User: Which sequence fits this backbone?
């Protein structure tokens, strides 16, 4: 046995080194691009995809059950074919860019290598993120090929395999389209930034700061989850990874002070999901939005800021009211870190985030901002003794490798989403879908928004946010544009529901992740998550009717809209969780709900009505609280 194991161990060690070299090369390649400028767009995207597919096929086997020669065939052969398809593009680049698209016939190499690459992108995506997106893309491919035979009015002229391969492989409308460009241009750099921040201990800074600020208050650990997940989520950009990182500490703490497992998991799932809409970094889909809207990333961050604040205020107040209603206390101060020492020891690790924001405000590109942020991490960590020990050569190499690995899921998802976008573009499905939504809504905006929300959540189920958002842009945004919704508001509307699909049953990926820690059942935790995240479902409607919440409009309108909305989401949380100044009975909860809706509506009369309703509840509750305090004082005196 030893003689057989030794070669296997040697081969495994060599493979690990090879993967490490390729991953480091991928990271360094993307880090140099902001300095040197990207190559021609098709070449840049092709090299990026080549790196990603190489690492996927080397790292993730087709099946864990395969061994020996079968595994070599199942993993090695697809890699060779994928690299051959990309090499064909790179070697014959002039031919690709000078041929007359849809006029010149495809060569045999074009057809076979293009078809193979499409299938291998599907397979690579399956390996790294699961079946949901590849199945979705496959359905779109079948739709394109089987056009004349489709039922229910879905039929169209149909396209040949040659036409589909040309669209998806020979142009920048498919696999090498905008999604892959975003992955290559932005995502790898920001993933590297987040990876290095985590390596030098920024996650610990976030957690200890949140514990120091909110751990002692009512329901403290739940508030820690809100603060930590908001901070960490803006760096990680992934709801599931955020849950698994911060939830490992916050969920047990919440259960320890008395929160039900379902509620504890829901708090972490919802708070982690919101990280993708929290500036300054957000998730990968935000960079895709900047490309689609043809605006700077800073502009997208500005659109997202107020809705993100509303989302987190609502969640924070919900956990506060739930804690007060159930009589939960915070953690003992003796068990909590103090903010002063935490900031003195690790506060300097906030500086890389400030570097990114500063560079963006200087008018530089997002890739350059990310590069400056990455470059600042090591010297900043070395500047203080408390973090100096985290910086070593092995750590830097490991950070480059981990950053490249962490970018693979987005790279594969973007390439696979490109297949969907290419099919939608080729078949005109986007126009058909727009007509369907507009007709079903009878040219009225409210029904169209409801239909778009439902379609968006369904399209996003089980998918990462980025491909879910991309598909919704192609299918749903044109319908909203037809109904005169501002383009930024339409994009933010579908962006929100692409994100919220991760907490919406039945396929709520962030809730699944939280349940693996909390031990709760899906139904209870999903119900709690939807209740906690209800503001997230309402906010998109608000900025469609009130663009001031996207910082579009006059300053006075923006200030009024923000103030009313902040009070409104607080009322909504109080209504749903039965507490405000004190416990709320049924009619007070109904009145608070009415006040919330009125305050959230972009109408001055509604705002006044909401303020009056809130003042009435406050007056009644204040009187009740004073009476209870007086009665308690009398009881104590006896």
Assistant:
């Amino acid at each position: 046995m030893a003689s057989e194991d030794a070669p296997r161990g040697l081969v495994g060690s060599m493979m690990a080194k090879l993967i490490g070299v390729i991953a480091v090369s991928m990271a360094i390649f993307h880090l140099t691009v902001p300095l040197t400028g990207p190559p021609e767009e098709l070449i840049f995207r092709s090299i990026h995809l080549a790196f990603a597919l190489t690492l996927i096929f080397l790292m993730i086997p087709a099946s864990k059950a395969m061994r020996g020669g079968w595994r070599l065939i199942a993993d090695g052969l697809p890699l060779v074919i994928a690299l051959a398809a990309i090499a064909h593009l790179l070697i014959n680049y002039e031919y690709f860019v000078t041929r007359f698209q849809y006029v010149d016939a495809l060569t045999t190499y074009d057809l076979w290598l293009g078809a193979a690459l499409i299938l291998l992108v599907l397979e690579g995506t399956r390996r790294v993120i699961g079946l949901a997106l590849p199945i979705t893309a496959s359905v779109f491919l079948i739709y394109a090929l089987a056009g004349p035979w489709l039922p229910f009015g879905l039929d169209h002229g149909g396209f040949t395999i040659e036409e589909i391969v040309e669209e998806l492989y020979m142009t920048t409308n498919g696999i090498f389209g905008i999604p892959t460009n975003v992955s290559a241009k932005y995502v790898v750099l920001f993933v590297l930034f987040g990876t290095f921040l985590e390596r030098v201990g920024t996650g610990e800074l976030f957690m200890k700061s949140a514990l120091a600020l909110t751990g002692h208050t009512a329901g403290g650990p739940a508030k820690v989850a809100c603060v930590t997940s908001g901070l960490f989520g803006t760096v990680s950009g992934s709801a599931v990874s955020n849950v698994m990182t911060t939830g490992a500490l916050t969920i047990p703490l919440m259960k320890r002070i008395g929160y039900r497992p379902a509620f504890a998991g829901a708090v972490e799932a919802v708070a982690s999901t919101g990280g993708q809409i929290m500036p300054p970094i957000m998730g990968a889909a935000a960079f895709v939005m900047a490309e689609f809207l043809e605006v700077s990333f800073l502009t997208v961050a500005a659109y997202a800021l107020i809705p993100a604040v509303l989302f987190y205020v609502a969640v924070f107040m919900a956990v506060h009211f739930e804690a007060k209603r159930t009589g939960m206390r915070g953690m003992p101060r003796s068990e909590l870190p103090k903010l002063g020492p935490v900031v003195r020891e690790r506060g300097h690790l906030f500086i890389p985030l400030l570097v990114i924001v500063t560079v963006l405000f200087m008018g530089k590109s997002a890739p350059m901002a990310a590069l400056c942020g990455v470059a600042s991490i090591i010297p900043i960590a070395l500047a203080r003794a408390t973090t100096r020990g985290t910086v070593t050569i092995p750590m830097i190499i490991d950070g480059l490798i981990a950053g490249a690995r962490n970018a693979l899921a987005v790279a594969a998802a973007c390439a696979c989403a490109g297949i969907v976008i290419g099919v939608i573009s080729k078949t005109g499905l986007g126009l058909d879908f727009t007509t369907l939504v507009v007709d079903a809504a009878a040219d009225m905006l409210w029904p169209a928004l409801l239909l778009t929300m439902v379609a968006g959540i369904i399209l996003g189920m089980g998918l990462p946010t980025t491909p879910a958002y991309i598909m919704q842009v192609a299918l749903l945004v044109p319908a909203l544009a037809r109904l005169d919704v501002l383009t930024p508001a339409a994009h933010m509307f579908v962006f929100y529901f692409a994100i919220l699909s991760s907490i919406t049953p039945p396929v709520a990926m962030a809730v699944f992740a939280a349940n693996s820690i909390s031990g709760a059942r899906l139904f209870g935790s999903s119900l709690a998550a939807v209740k906690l995240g209800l503001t997230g479902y309402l906010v998109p409607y608000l900025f469609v009717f009130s663009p001031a919440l996207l910082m579009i409009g006059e300053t006075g309108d923006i200030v009024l809209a923000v103030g009313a909305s902040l009070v409104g989401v607080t009322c909504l949380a109080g209504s749903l969780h039965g507490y405000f100044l004190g416990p709320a009975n049924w009619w007070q909860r109904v009145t608070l709900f009415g006040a919330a809706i009125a305050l959230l509506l972009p109408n001055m009369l509604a705002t006044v009505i909401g303020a009056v309703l809130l003042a009435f509840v406050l007056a009644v509750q204040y009187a009740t609280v004073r009476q209870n305090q007086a009665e308690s004082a009398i009881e104590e005196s006896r």
